[in-house]
Amino acid sequence: MIGLFRASNFRCLEKVELEFGPRFNLIIGANASGKTSILEALAYLGRGKSFRGASAARLVKHGEGEFVLFGEVARKAGRINIGVRNGRDGLEVRIGGEDAPGAAALAAALPLQVIDPEVHNLVAGGPETRRRFLDWVAFHVEHDHLAIWRRFRRVLKQRNAALRSQATVATIRSWDAAFLDFGGRLDESRRKALTLTRDSLRQHGTALLEADLSFEYQQGWSRDKELGAALEEGLERDRQLGSTQHGPHRADIKVSYDERLARKLVSRGQQKLLASAMILAATATAQAALGAPLLLLLDDPAAELDEGSISRLMAAVTAIKCQVVATSLDSAALRFAEKPTLFHVEHGVVIRHR
Ligand SMILES: Nc1ncnc2c1ncn2[C@@H]1O[C@H](COP(=O)(O)OP(=O)(O)O)[C@@H](O)[C@H]1O
Ligand SMILES: [Mg+2]
Which residues, in sequence order, are bridge partners of residue 308? Predict the structure, then answer.
């Protein structure tokens, strides 16, 4: 949760200061006034990267050398100030007045989720977005998830480098013990995360789509095999292709809608609702584990949704009791359960605030 927030030289925002309320906040303004930029800056403070996939260089206001973000955040452990500067020297992070090691420290200090017009990719896109989704929950509920994930990724890289350079079978196999160790633990941690999230997934999915939904974990190798056996059987093919074909790096969540693959759902609006249900479930699950309200950013949530869907979405958002910062073209499009703290932006400037 965030209170005071400042951003300078971030996209079109030269200098803005906003004092967010603990529950509902609404930023309104015309097209290109800077609404999404404010959410993007908030998300950058909790992730060390843009949710629009822009590089730091593109986020710096034209003609300036660096951007600076600052926030007063509240967690279960108490209040703390966090700051981010990104310029020629790369990302610099300060948490509680001390240098911090980067994105993971930010994610622990200001955990947040985003529902934006691209959210349907969580359902319609490739497995990587769903692995990231699962890893986000696991990061917040399993204390050693990040360390295991990093070590697995390193081993995978090394094994793939050996495969690519046509190393001997003995060299390739020398990575297998670590691959199985970290791969097995990564798999375990993701399974637990999905198990913890499942009730909430069903509940929000049903509330938003009024359909029968299922979320099935796919481990990344054949279901009836041990990872070791899959690795051994795949060795020849791995050598031919020059990379490891089976393992947790291929994991996915199979999302089904009335027993059909949700990825093939025709309506973009339905994909958006389903993806939103997943984000809300992840937020609620992490929030329960962390014992404090999380920040949820809603960028133009009304886009592509009919009125009934918007009100179901807003009801579900209200139900999880997180802190919300939403954007909209006008103040009438979104109905909140209580009066939101309102901000108007015009040409990158917050002109009214009450
Ligand atoms: N690095 C930058 N420096 C200055 N302006 C930028 C930069 N990047 C984007 N902009 C401008 O910021 C404006 C606001 O964009 P955005 O926040 O997406 O608006 P909104 O969400 O209100 O429609 C746009 O006019 C865009 O061209
Ligand atoms: Mg926008």
Answer: none
